Amino acid sequence: MSAEAPAVTSAPDAPTQAATPAPATLGEATRPPSDDDCSGMTGAEAVARWGGEVATFGEDEGWQWNLEGADTSTYDQCAELSWVVLGIKGGTASSPYQIMLFHDGQYVGVTSEKSIGFLPQVSRIDDDEIQVTYTWPKDGESNDVASGRSVSVFEWEDDSNQVVHKGEWPPYVQ
């Protein structure tokens, strides 16, 4: 895994902290926020447009994000917060993943500066909030029986015009 620190760190049950944009991973909003704005793009178009901005896990071809194979069904051009999970080309279950975040269909960054192993389970809580469950191997476990879980919540906050994280990270991300 990458040695970079996460975009946001907070202890479980810690007060909510605003995501800190990392120049290599977070995009700048190109328009003022508006409740009735939609990007007009499909998920595939959004990933094609902004996927190249997501920092790669490694330099060689085997560590590049599989932009064409990303499941874009979770992208919503009008949602306060939507997402697309990126995996690497030819990856395995424990390979690194990254989660792109979108506000009104516009790319706003990733959940963490650090790529995180194992396919994350992401679910919608509300139009502006998602929950991510990360899997990781506990001490002595192999990847195929990894039973560790960490739960994070990401919420779009209109007042600050950014995504805010609360919850847990896998131990190796902290």
Automatic annotation (TrEMBL):
Pfam family, one: Lipoprotein_21
UniProt lineage: Bacteria, Bacillati, Actinomycetota, Actinomycetes, Actinomycetales
InterPro entries listed in its UniProt record: LppP/LprE
Amino acid composition bias (Low complexity), ranges on this chain: 9-25
Keywords noted in UniProt: Cell membrane, Lipoprotein, Membrane, Palmitate, Signal
Stretch list, region Disordered: 1-42
Descriptive protein name: LppP/LprE family lipoprotein
